[in-house]
Every structure is written in C-alpha cells, then in structure tokens.
User: Fold this.
Amino acid sequence: METYKVFDWKFFFHNEQEKNKYITELKGYINNNYSELHDQPGAIRYNLDNAIHGGYFDLFLLNPHLNDFLLNYFKSTSVFIKFLRYRNPLHLAGEQELHFDWIVKDGEIRMEMFVLLDDMDLYNGGLVIMQNEKLKPIEAEAGSCILMDSSILHGGSKNKNGKSRALIDIHIGVTPEVNEQCLKRIKLK
Assistant:
C-alpha cells in the first residue's frame, strides 16, 4: 500500500533551466528575507508563515505551476495552509525521530507537502517513512513535490555526505470530505 505520492519536477516546470532558475531565486529569497529558527539542532530552519496571506502563499514562494496544482488538486475552498517551514539538515546531523504531524481540530485533517529545493536521497538527510512496518527512504529530484497524509510516521535521515537537502514543508488543512477525495486520488488508502 502506498502512503505517499511523488510528483516529479517535470510536472511543475517546462525544462530543467526553468526549474534551476526558480530554485536558485527561491533559496536566495528565503535566505535574504527570513530569520533562522534555532529550535532544531542539526538543521537550518526558517519559519515562512508570514508568507501566507489569507490561506494562500505569496506567489513568489511557490511557482505558478505549483499554485495551480494546489488549487486544482484539492478542488475545494475547504483547504487551508496551516504552516510553512524551510528545513535543511547540516552535515552529519539533521536526523529526526519518527513522528507524525496529524492533528485533528474541528474535523480538520492535515495533508503534508514537501517541495524539494535539492535532490533528496538516503545520504543527504532525506525523508524516511514507515511503510508496512519497515522504514522506507524516499528519493526524488529537486523541484519535485511529495504529498502525504500527515498521520504517516516519518522523519529525516542523517545528512551523511554534507550535500544540501533543502525543502519547504507545507501543512495543508482539509475537511474530512476533501481528505477522502485526496486519498482516493493519490491512492493512499
């Protein structure tokens, strides 16, 4: 049973040059406009919540293809951006314990979306999930997006090779009805 879905970067960008330009500009924008959080040893983190206005992102933070994807994918006004974080594990650090981020409040369910700003693999602090009682590393290229139910046990692995593995972690709140539609669409259950 699949518990997540990876949307390849080709889904969001016309070519690799467009993808690389966007990622370079976005990393520069974040580094120049946000203050680092010091709440998680072993990782560079930024709180990007002030980029959310009325439940939607500043258009600069997510490319138009991803904005269109979010609006079309969920096909509902019952979708709320709950919080937005940037995370990049440091060399020989960054490992996270397995956890889940699922919080039910007033019938709301959370989906989690990871927008990759670097390639992600087992050696640079990539995402691992619990699937069928086994840890499974997730590998994907920069510019790709991973969507999963926030109740899935997941964490970050140790950055063993020191290569950057930056991502934006987006928590999306949805009503139970919208969640069920999404789960069917990405075949999570």
